[in-house]
Amino acid sequence: MTMPYSIQIINLLASLLLLIAFAMLSQRRILSLINLFAWQGLVLSLSTFVVAYSTGQHHLYYSAALTLLLKVLVLPWLLHRLMRKLNVRWDVETLINIPATMLVGIGLVIFSFNLAAPISQLSESITRGLIGIALASVLLSMLMMLTRRKAIPQVVGFLAMENGLFFAATSATHGMPMVVELGIALDVLVATFIFGIFFFQIRETFDSLDISNMEKLKDD
Amino acid sequence: MMSSNQALGILLQIYQSLLVVALAPLLTGWVNQCRAWLQNRSGPGVMQPYRTLRKLFHKDAVIAYNASLLFRATPYIRFGCMWLAAAIIPIIAVDLPFSPAADVIALVGVFALARVFIALAAMDIGTAFGTLGARREMLVSFLAEPALLMVFFTASMISHSTQLPRIVEALAQHQFVLYPSLAFAGLAFVIVLLAENARIPVDNPATHLELTMIHEAMILEYSARHLALVEWASSLKLFAYISIGIALFLPYGIAEVGAMAGNWGSALPLAIIALLVKMVLAGAALALLEALLAKMRIFRTPEFLGTAFLLAVLGLLIHFLLGA
Amino acid sequence: MVGAFPLDIADAIIVSLMALGLMGLALQHSPHLITNIIFPLGAIASLALAATGFWALGEPVSHTVLPLGLPGLPLHLSLDPLSAFFLILLGGASFGVSIFSAGYFKSMPGNTLGLLCLEYHLFLASMALVLLADDAYMFMVAWETMALSSYFLVTTDHHVPDIRKAGFLYLLIAHVGAIAILLSFGVMQGGHGIGAYTFAAMREAHLSAFWASVAFLLALFGFGAKAGLLPLHVWLPEAHPAAPSPVSALMSGIMLKTAIYGILRVTFDLLANSLNGQQWWWGVLALALGLITAIFGVMFAAVQGDMKRLLAYSSIENIGLLLVGIGLAIIFHVYGKNTLAALSLTATLYHSLNHAFFKSLLFVGTGSILHATGERNMGRMGGLIHQMPWVAVLMLVGVLSISGLPPFNGFVSEWLLLQAFLLSPGLPNSYINMLIPVAAGVIALAAALAAYVMVKFYGVIFLGQTRGEAREHAHDAGIPERIGLSWLALACVVLGLAPVYVVRQLDLVTQMLVGKGLGNATPGWLFLAPVDMERASYSPVFFLLAVLGVMLVTALVVHYFYHGRLLRGPAWDCGYPEQTSRMQDTAEGFGQPIRRIFEPFFRIESELPGAFDTHPRYHGRSEDRLWYALYLPVKRITEKLSSWASLLQHGRIHLYLAYTFVTLLVLLAFV
């Protein structure tokens, strides 16, 4: 059952992606979270590169380069700045404790692997197992957004979710049209800026980045 | 009737276990030396564990008034268990005649047997530190053991066997394949190795600060030949763990008894050289890892080992998904 | 053999057990005769029962109809391999316990002893009858006799209020369970009228999938209540410690197994026709319940301070493991993988047998300790290995066995169970495929925690310094106790060293239940293999010889080349001079990490001393959340309902007559 090495490498990178998603889920420190996000971007960029190389689709090279630029360099840099400016380092407590989150995470992985199984059987592509992993990463990132109290980890979760989607696109269907990719990249960048602006606003309003304060906004 | 293959196998078996028992303190010495270098010390040299053993064997043993026979028998039991582990693991050759006696699950059982005895011996004298060490040791182990089993499960899912020789054959003798599931299992295994061998983020082999120690606290009351055997068994345990790691994740270059009948003159030296090179690298890596990590609070270790368990489970799941 | 079917012999033995009980009652004025004659005779009867079971294992199934019972409802008995296997378990373990009892009950006053002797032997006889019953009526009669006799045994010390309470709880849950079992039998006879109450008729009844599931669920509930399955476990840690130790041993070692027998009988025999691909969820349910029970049991065992409660919780864990094996067997069986089903069943049966021996061993051992020290709280023991070397050594065997350590027996069954888990991939349901190996991880966790618990158990009781007031008067067990303990310990060792032989015998049972055995997997007698040698193998004899050989050689070499000089001195303990026994871990202290890690599962009450207390006092209790979340609400509802019902009750006879009158009128109007 030997597969070509390119596929094996993509499988390995996919597993790393999932691993990083889990690591983010368990990480308490915001700095490490941002670094993990950068690593995830790097893995994503590498896998896109390998897909590009093995399928000979040249536009994926650009896509890989774009990922590298945006998700490994620009966004982490922005987030670092944001963190320093806002002076938040620790996500003091998550809503559910970490071991429980991990167990839920394992459940999600099993769920998404099984969910993806019939889809994968339809696909002729040899990378069919990857849809399950991509789905699992997306769900794990959502779980992270759900369980965090502070706003920055939630943004990181959002961005990581986008990573998962992007991975599904490149690995399973060998990439989206360039225009769409550029559009998404721009969206993500803009979203991060907007989030940044919002954070400053939130902090000015509540003197804290704890989003539980937002509960006060509802009218009684 | 014994075929020449079997005779060769038994010879190799004896050779391997003697070699391992002889080399184990060297590995410990090497790891300590690397640590010393990384900490910018000159270090005692790689032969230091042998000198320590020799010194300890020559001393008169002193044991507490209320030490029972269990206390005195434990070093021998532990040494026997570790020796057995070293005999089961394919270190220089697969298909050794002893290996069907125990598979990976039984191997975990061997380690557990040794651990239970040393914990009981630690409680035998009834000192504060002894019971503290026993409690912590059991705490670490009840979390590490399932993780280790899950690592083995992942490997045996790939090779369809829990026999270590079969696992090694399946992983080594075929074409080189990347197994993402094994990458996860490998990470988990490293964590387990650190925890089970009293290494730094969980325990500190060099500590004598009472409140932070686990393994040292358990063997505080041992002296002379008993202590020598306990230390030697610990070296053997480290050697056995690293050998398991090599067998599961880097099995290349190991010799095979069946194929060696004709040309064992060339396969065996190759296997030994491969073993030595891998051991040197693994020891250095272990030292580096220990230098980089900081000792964690005892109640952080459940989380640390939980991570290992999680990684191993993820590896298993990924094996199901990707079939690799 | 003419005339003497194994079944007839078994009947004769059961009758003689009952007779022994009655003789005990008659002899209550000469208690030494009871202990010196009746209990040893009972032990011999048990051994004969085991031998009969052994004989019957290879014989064709024999049936008999007793002339007793109600008119038109004769009692049926039969002896097939499944019953035979459990008879061996019953006889083998109770032999050791009865011998032990001969010594243990020596100091008991005559009238109590006479009653106890009757109940004890009745208990044994009724358990044997449960195993032999071949119709629902006989089964329920035996089952109820078993429950009642054990209730009276539990309440032997009925002047202690706590024990009365424990006994009541036990009786209550036993009866709720019995009702469920009765209903299950009712469903299984499939509405074929009163003649269909025999097991043979139930086997023939073709139930729809729905009714089969109902019968299964009722049986699981009913037998689960007897086995201590979550959430019906609450009686177990109360009742087992309350009973005298040999009785605890019988209850934990054997009576719980009758529940396992019941689940196996119903699932794989009576409902065999209905067990098909649709019923995979039975297996998943059993597996999940088993896992939860196992983890729960061992977690609670880790925080106990009372040695018998600790063992009771450990029994809950082992029942969980057994149920996991049954669940796995169901899953494999419904998907047609009968070799694997046989493997899981072998693991289950093997573990039942092992648990019967090591748990009995440990329970009777606690009896010796209780006699010697008068204490059940482990926190006041310590260092008993010096005063009670026999008990200490024999219990060490039990402790190593229950911790699942090679080369003892507990390891073999856990090994087989894990092998069954590892062979699970390839099932048609992908969720089950992925979840089962994860479940194996949970089993591994339970097994590793069991080792933790047992190190605590043994270490705190036998090792270290004596705690509390000096227990110099503690004495070792007497001769009959030693024989009983040795028998049980010997069984643990033999079952650990000869797994190939045991598995071949178990094949006869699995052949009957799922039509497959494992016998052909293993070539010789030395290596145990689950399916074939390439897959996995294990040889305990090799294992033991290797460890012992190396130990011996090492010891000889060390003493030959160096010297064997040994000095004694005070304990070093890092040079700390003022060691007292209070500085050791108590049972509470040893369990503290578990309590901290699994904190959400416990309901913890603790009282910590402040920094300047002159009389610092620590008090801690870890309680079961389920008791508060599940049982107390049920209790409140029941109380409310019964208070409504009590409105009807006025104590005036006219009113009661009026009730009868109204009922009569209503009935006449409708009929």
List the keywords.
heterotrimer; B: 324 residues; mainly alpha; two-stranded parallel sheet; 11 helices; 3 strands; 2% strand; globular; C: 671 residues; two-stranded antiparallel ribbon; two-stranded antiparallel sheet
Description:
The complex is a heterotrimer of chains A (220), B (324) and C (671). With 220 residues, chain A is mainly α. Chain A has one domain. Chain A has 7 helices and no strands. In chain A, helix 1 (5-26) runs parallel beside helix 5, helix 2 packs antiparallel against helix 3 and helix 3 (59-86) runs parallel beside helix 7 (178-206). The longest helix of chain A has 29 residues, at 178-206. The model of chain A has no long low-confidence stretch (mean pLDDT 77). Chain B is mainly alpha-helical. Chain B has one domain (4-322). Helix content of chain B is 72%, strand content 2%. Chain B has a two-stranded parallel sheet. The longest helix of chain B is centred in the C-terminal third of the chain and has 36 residues, at 257-292. With 671 residues, chain C is mainly alpha-helical. Chain C has one domain (6-542). Chain C has helices at residues 6-26, 31-57, 81-104, 110-132, 136-154, 161-188, 199-204, 209-227, 236-242, 245-270, 280-302, 307-334, 338-373, 384-387, 389-402, 409-422, 430-462, 479-497, 499-514, 540-561, 587-597, 625-646, 653-670, and strands at 62-70, 73-79, 566-569, 602-607, 619-624. Chain C has a two-stranded antiparallel sheet. In chain C, strands 4-5 form a two-stranded antiparallel sheet. In chain C, helix 1 runs antiparallel to helix 4 and helix 13 (338-373) crosses helix 19. The mean pLDDT of chain C is 86. Classes of the chains: A mainly alpha (220), B mainly alpha (324), C mainly alpha (671). The A-B interface holds A 1-3, 5, 8-9, 11-12, 14-16, 18-19, 22, 26, 98-99, 102, 106, 109-110, 113, 116, 129, 132-133 and B 174-175, 177-178, 180-181, 183-184, 303, 306-307, 310-311, 313-314, 317-318, 320-324. Strand 1 (61-64) of chain B pairs parallel with strand 3 (566-569) of chain C.
